[in-house]
Automatic annotation (TrEMBL):
Signal peptide, first to last residue: 1-20
The protein's name in its UniProt record: DUF2147 domain-containing protein
PANTHER family, per database record: BLL5882 PROTEIN, BLR1215 PROTEIN
Domain DUF2147: 25-140
InterPro entries: DUF2147
Lineage, highest ranks first: Bacteria, Pseudomonadati, Bacteroidota, Bacteroidia, Bacteroidales
Domain of life: Bacteria
Keywords: Signal
One Pfam family, short name: DUF2147
Organism expressing this protein natively: Dysgonomonas termitidis
Keyword Kinase: no
Length: 142
């Protein structure tokens, strides 16, 4: 009986640990200049790739903004509901080989995403090589 309990407890802890180490979930983003909370992005997995879309805009004055500087199918779409993380693949402890869209300027950047603990996400957008970019820290929403 004790052995079954220990095995079940171990399995339960393993499942919780695996979930805590996933990038999927809801993440709060912050403005680079003001450091104020900006939006909530929900990261999901589809067909083995990671995608993230804006599910909430925290500044009431910006709730209805559109991606006027975007191109292609994202042009003039509302930022609320916009997919900004596109097609990242797991590569060891990171997710890469995808893109991130900056709705404020409409540009697509290469992207690397990695967990920093279980509740912080490092999101790096760059042009060319990773050295030419910037990193944002997102915080998990519980």
């Amino acid at each position: 009986m004790k052995l079954k309990f220990i095995l079940l407890a171990g399995l339960f802890i393993s499942i919780l640990s695996a979930n805590a180490q996933s990038v999927t979930g809801k993440w709060k983003t912050f403005d680079d200049e003001t450091k104020e909370a900006k939006s909530i992005v929900e990261i999901t997995e589809r067909d083995g790739k990671i995608y993230g879309k804006v599910i909430e805009i925290l500044n009431p004055a910006k709730k209805n903004i559109k991606c006027t500087n975007c191109s292609g199918t994202d042009k003039d779409k509302p930022v609320l509901g916009l997919e900004i993380l596109k097609g990242l693949s797991k590569d060891g402890k990171e997710y890469s080989d995808g893109k991130i869209l900056d709705p404020s300027n409409g540009k697509l950047y290469k992207c690397i995403v990695s967990l920093d603990g279980s509740d912080k996400l490092k999101v790096r957008g760059y042009i060319g090589i990773s050295a030419f970019g910037r990193t944002q820290n997102w915080v998990r929403v519980k």
